[in-house]
């Protein structure tokens, strides 16, 4: 899914791109093997002259992923993300 060749529609959102974050934002806080991605999307229903875009984070570990919306980036607790990745 990284480096999408074509946009994907998910509900009212169009996923434009998925890229690895390229660094661990919290070294040693996440489980070994955790991967971090940035997902760029835009609303398929936006009527602005320049379509509204969002850059959300996805944290992936084994068979689980947690999406952190751009609007929640500064309010999401790291401990909650790690618990979700563990399946708790």
Q: What report would you give on this structure?
A:
This protein is mostly beta strands and 88 residues long. It has one domain. It has 1 helix and 5 strands, in the order βββββα. The chain has a 5-stranded antiparallel sheet. Strand 1 and strand 2 form a beta hairpin. The radius of gyration is 14 Å and the shape is elongated. The N terminus is likely disordered.
> What is the terminal-to-terminal distance?
26 Å
Q: Please, what is the average pLDDT?
A: 84
User: Please, how many helices?
Assistant: 1
* Shape designation: elongated
Proportion of β residues? 35-45%
Helix amount, in percent?
10-25%
> Which residue ranges are poorly predicted, with pLDDT under 50 across at least 5 consecutive positions?
1-5
Q: Strand pairing plus helix content: what structural class?
A: mainly beta
Topology:
Blueprint: E1 8-10, E2 13-20, E3 35-43, E4 53-61, E5 64-68, H1 78-86
Antiparallel strand pairs: 1-2, 2-3, 3-4, 4-5
Which descriptors would you attach to this protein?
88 residues; disordered N terminus; five-stranded antiparallel β-sheet; 10% helix; mainly beta
What's the short version?
This protein has one domain. 10% of the residues lie in helices and 39% in strands.
């Amino acid at each position: 899914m990284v480096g999408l060749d074509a946009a994907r529609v998910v509900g009212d959102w169009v996923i434009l791109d998925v890229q690895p974050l390229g660094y661990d934002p919290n070294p040693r806080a996440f489980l070994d093997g955790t991967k971090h991605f940035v997902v760029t999307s835009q609303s398929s229903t936006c009527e602005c002259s320049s379509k509204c875009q969002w850059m959300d984070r996805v944290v992936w570990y084994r068979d689980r992923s947690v999406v952190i919306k751009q609007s929640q980036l500064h309010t999401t607790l790291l401990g909650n993300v790690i618990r979700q990745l563990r399946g708790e």
